[in-house]
Write a structure and sequence with these properties.
Mean pLDDT: 77
Number of helices: 14
Structural class: mainly alpha
Low-confidence stretches: 1-23, 186-194, 334-345
Shape: elongated
Order of helices and strands: HHHHHHHHHHHHHH
Number of strands: 0
Distance between the termini: 37 Å
Largest sheet: none
Oligomer: single chain
Strand content: under 5%
Radius of gyration: 27 Å
Helix content: 40-55%
Length: 345
């Protein structure tokens, strides 16, 4: 058929919505090819061409994609194919991010370990003197010494099942103490009722969140089924949330987890098989929170931490690996040049 008009290829830097505009819009100039096909006809759309399809109610459309794995660099750089460069560049970045983002995110998550140890009062840089910067309580010392996996508590892949069991035991005991303060009938030896805010919030839940984060960061859920099961067991063994107060405490506890811990926990759900066990663990954890009365805010905050770590890691991959720039230097100059969020889909 004879088709009038020409392809829009002069404004690739602009938003696609501005390119085509909404249907029947006359506000934005639309210099497009418009083709109507009927039963038995087919339309070939070259790779990288923006397009939109509108169908009537009485039709069925079938799309077929061709394998372009054999596309050569010389053909891509041909002047007649220059309209595809933006598309190919995006596709290259997407594939590179997909291939490397999990490993890079895991490394970024592990970088939080040293900071968590310092928050717990242990400075790994004090190799020639007492590493405890503050006198530890018995529970914190028992937890870190039980979880240690090498010299100066620095984690190694060689840690054994005994270290995992020790960490689970201490976290379970401490969680029972913290959530026990939410019992309105609990009184001390003098007959005075314990105060939830005095004993549990914010310090106790914050400390429990640090311990859980440290435990998760010591795991390798991307490769080890044993470590994924250990993470699931950690949360399944926590006290039941049988009151609204305890559910609110669980929401606060999840907010205390670090970005890296949230990412590794989400990775454990994603990688675990059978998928039904992962789904059960997910629903059990967030079922203990007060999400049903606060419009799912706990899940939203949790996923925001996961997305934040992933997007920041993707940005560093793009700047450092693909563009050969220094991401740290880019961050230092943020006062002069506004930072842009990097979201790769």
């Amino acid at each position: 058929k004879q088709v009038g008009g020409h392809l829009v290829n002069r404004y690739f830097a602009r938003d696609v919505g501005m390119e085509f505009g909404p249907p029947n819009s006359t506000d934005t100039p639309r210099d497009n090819i418009v083709v109507s096909i009927i039963a038995g006809e087919a339309l070939f759309i070259p790779e990288g061409w923006w397009h939109r399809v509108e169908s009537t109610a009485q039709c069925m459309a079938i799309n077929v994609w061709f394998d372009h794995s054999g596309t050569s660099l010389s053909s891509l750089c041909h002047k007649h194919n220059q309209h595809m460069l933006n598309y190919q560049a995006r596709e290259m970045v997407r594939q590179y991010i997909d291939a490397n983002v999990v490993e890079s995110c895991c490394h970024s998550a592990k970088d939080e370990i040293i900071g968590l140890l310092r928050q717990l009062g242990f400075d790994v840089s004090n190799v020639f003197r007492d590493p405890w910067t503050i006198p530890p309580d018995n529970l914190t010392r028992k937890f870190l010494e039980g979880m240690k996996c090498g010299k100066n508590l620095v984690p190694h892949r060689s840690r054994g099942t005994r270290a995992i069991e020790a960490g689970l035991s201490v976290i379970g005991d401490y969680a029972s103490q913290v959530f026990g303060t939410a019992d309105p009938n609990l009184v001390n030896a003098t007959g005075h009722q314990y105060s939830l805010y005095q004993l549990a919030l914010p310090g106790a839940l914050s400390r429990l969140g640090q311990m859980i984060s440290y435990f998760i960061l010591m795991m390798y859920p991307e490769k080890s089924a044993r470590d994924r099961n250990a993470i699931f067991k950690l949360f399944s063994d926590l006290p039941n949330a049988d009151t609204l107060v305890k559910r609110q405490m669980y929401s606060i506890l999840l907010l205390c987890l670090t970005e890296g811990a949230c990412y590794l926990l989400s990775l454990a759900w994603e990688k675990h098989r059978p998928i039904e066990e992962a789904r059960m663990s997910f629903e059990e954890l967030f079922g203990r929170t007060d999400d049903d009365v606060c419009n799912g805010q706990t899940r939203k905050h949790f996923m925001a931490k996961v997305d934040s770590l992933r997007n920041e890691t993707a940005k560093r991959l793009i700047l450092g690996d693909l563009m050969l720039l220094n991401p740290e230097k880019e961050d230092d100059e943020s006062d002069e040049v506004p930072r842009r969020n990097c979201v790769v889909s």
